[in-house]
Amino acid sequence: MSTVRQYYCDVEKFFNSTLESHDSIQINLNDSYIPKQINIDQNLYFALSKCTKLLELSISLYHTLIGGQGLSDICFGIMNCSKLQRLSLQLKYNQIEAYGIQNLSTTLCCFKDLEYLYLDLSDNALGDKSIPAIASKFKNCKHLKNLRLDISNNEFDEQDAKNLAFELQNCQKLEILSVIFMQK
What we know:
Elements: E1 5-8, H1 11-15, E2 24-28, H2 40-49, E3 56-60, H3 68-78, E4 86-90, H4 98-108, E5 116-120, H5 130-135, E6 146-150, H6 158-168, E7 176-180
Parallel strand pairs: 1-2, 2-3, 3-4, 4-5, 5-6, 6-7
């Protein structure tokens, strides 16, 4: 089965597309692409929840002021995409904190066939409880082969890095690992 990637940088076009038929979507809704009158979190939740055939999903939401509740809404939407094999969430420069990460962690458990995961959570409001919450769920992704994680410029310490490394030992099929853990 071949996948055809649909690319959207206009939120209205995505919402009006044939959502049920998509198997590969790239959504780029960085700061300049979101009309102010649209509640992006809620609308993405409803739209993504209808994309049940998705195998690949890439969402870029840099500088969109997404917070914990916004990330939670998006996560609840993609929970219906249980066939995902590739997931990329680029959420740099937002206001995501532990609450959103907790829901993202829960969402990762839904993707039993996930092979590729890219999470860019850099420059958010993540604290010391965020790393253990998300790292402990990687083991549920039994087919995960490639993990890219950018958690730069958040509030983490050496112990958090050790906790992450400890949890990653449980990813038996992991072949490629990239973790960016820089601090300003």
